[in-house]
Design brief:
The chain is 86% helix and 0% strand. The chain is mainly alpha-helical. The chain has two domains: 37 residues; 36 residues.
Length: 74
C-alpha cells in the first residue's frame, strides 16, 4: 500500500491542474455510471453516503482554498 501511495504522490507531482481536472472528471463520470447501475432500492442509501462524503471533503478543501486566497498560512 505504501508503494501505491508513493506512485500517486509522484503522479500528482508530475501533473498540472489540467491533468488533475481531467482525472476528477473521469472519476466523477465513473461515479455517475455506478450510480445509474444501482438498483432502485439501493439509491437512497447511496445518495446519503455520497452527500456525507461530499460534505466531509468539500468543507476542508474550500477552507484551504480560502486561506490561500486570503493569504493566510495553514
Amino acid at each position: 500500500m505504501e508503494k501505491l501511495f508513493g506512485y500517486a504522490e509522484e503522479y500528482i507531482e508530475q501533473s498540472d491542474w489540467k491533468t488533475l481536472a481531467a482525472l476528477k472528471f473521469c472519476l466523477t463520470s465513473l461515479g455517475v455510471l455506478i450510480g445509474m447501475a444501482l438498483p432502485q432500492k439501493c439509491r437512497k442509501c447511496a445518495k446519503i453516503i455520497a452527500s456525507v462524503v461530499f460534505a466531509v471533503t468539500y468543507v476542508p478543501l474550500m477552507a484551504k482554498f480560502f486561506r490561500i486566497v486570503l493569504g493566510r498560512p495553514n
